[in-house]
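In response to a reviewer's request, we include the raw inputs and outputs for one of the modeled complexes. The two entities were modeled together in a single run.
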Amino acid sequence: MRTDKASLKQVSARIHSYIHRTPVLNSRLINEIAGAEIYFKCENFQRMGAFKMRGATNAILNLTQHQKAKGVVTHSSGNFAQALSLAAESLGVPAYIVMPATAPEVKKAAVRTYGGKITECPPTLKDREDTARKIEEETGATFIHPSNDIEVIMGQGTAAMELLEDYSNLDHILCPVGGGGLIAGTSLAVKYFGNNCSCIGGEPMEADDAWRSLRTGRIETNKSVNTIADGLKTQLGDKNFPIIQENVEEIIRVTEDEIKNALKLIWERMKIVVEPSSAVPLAALLREKERFKNKKIGIIISGGNVDLNNLPF
Amino acid sequence: MRTDKASLKQVSARIHSYIHRTPVLNSRLINEIAGAEIYFKCENFQRMGAFKMRGATNAILNLTQHQKAKGVVTHSSGNFAQALSLAAESLGVPAYIVMPATAPEVKKAAVRTYGGKITECPPTLKDREDTARKIEEETGATFIHPSNDIEVIMGQGTAAMELLEDYSNLDHILCPVGGGGLIAGTSLAVKYFGNNCSCIGGEPMEADDAWRSLRTGRIETNKSVNTIADGLKTQLGDKNFPIIQENVEEIIRVTEDEIKNALKLIWERMKIVVEPSSAVPLAALLREKERFKNKKIGIIISGGNVDLNNLPF
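The model returned the following structure tokens for the whole complex.
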């Protein structure tokens, strides 16, 4: 019931005043190159620079007053750590963030800027989970998973919902696939608010766990994750996978060169700063140009948090 | 008469359907850092990626049918070459662009993409002028100067005019100073449409000809132009200098480090791609923070054409 159409509308109304309604941009030149009509939903302009702000905000708003007073905890070294910190700060809720000690200092600094309390741990999944569990026990904080949480999934779905409110006749909405929160939410929005619209994922070949999971019918893992799309290295979870199985038409895999080319195209032609993960759906579209010819396509630009001292150009 | 208020309104109406009305963005974090309320007029989202599209379009629209048939000619290796090419193409007018043979291939390619006919010449100002004059004689094309032309100046002024339409209560509008076309036009718009608003320029210390010109009362030249703000290396002309003398409150000079810091701030916090010249006004504001404290300030982001393979980060 919590993933039905009415619930998604409620989520959108609930987070509305805590997030930006991000602009939709397009580029005549990119349309010419693609042979399609593309509408980019620019979540790089979202608060803290990524769509994750939506899900984090919704997850916290869903808590009881008592839970809010105790705070929230997550483990993430990426955008979700910042998103949960900022969402919690906006709502007056303590946020405990478990980060590997090896995470870049710039990411820790960003979390601190937004008021998140960092606990460092060794860089394994088990250590992160154990550390988060310990904080839950000690503080009574509620654990919120970055992507495998229904409230997070619903929050992420509001980006595609807004895009369909603005452009109701899209044939496809493409988004990147990482931990599965964004694509699960997007696929629900497409189902409820699309008009003969399908949801398609873009995934790096170097981290194609979701592509393989859809084939085998069970959650696959990545042995290595050698991709510049650093937001897409995580894997699906038991809450988002069934939603993806049911509602996502297909996942298209792309090479690193295809990601880099699409990234450069977005920076050069649209004049916006986006992170490599954001370029993966455009890379997927350009890889299968014939299929998308003359279609109207929405693309979720996931975020714009990049290290300017370490660009892939 | 051609620079009065009614004329500027006419220019805005005339170019309206050939240009984008660019968005105005702001950043809570940059406002906090500056201690002021800043509204960025984002001409990096303008057609061909810079405000120059406005002046080029206006200059061509001002020609007679006979002149249009013969075409236009300019010498420029920067954004104006692309702007005149695209504006001419949009209006079905031939464009002859004189470029130094030493100009980067990527800039020549951009001009060709927009339909400009390139004539190469040796890299001195005299050679550029001689070559342009020869083309005028041979083709009957009309010469249009990138910045020292009243119709170009009036076209550039429409960016600040739009900004003041959106935000009528700005205390200052800051813009970069290169050849003087943008700041002359901006200062006219501020005079006609501002409400106790003043126009202030930002200029690199390494190319401070305009700052010196305002002091000596005559057009000064730059001996060297060692700045990353490559759009600001040119000098004032006899058409724009009197307008600047009369209507610009002051020019603030900034160091290369200040430009780089402001550039990084815009990229990181606003998630937009802007060229180094665009960061100069923000650098000027941050250099004189106390003076601008709690003020409402408009900043013209001049353009977003950068070589991603050669970034200053």
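As requested, we also summarize the result in words. The first strand of chain A starts at residue 24 and ends at 25. The mean pLDDT of chain A is 96.
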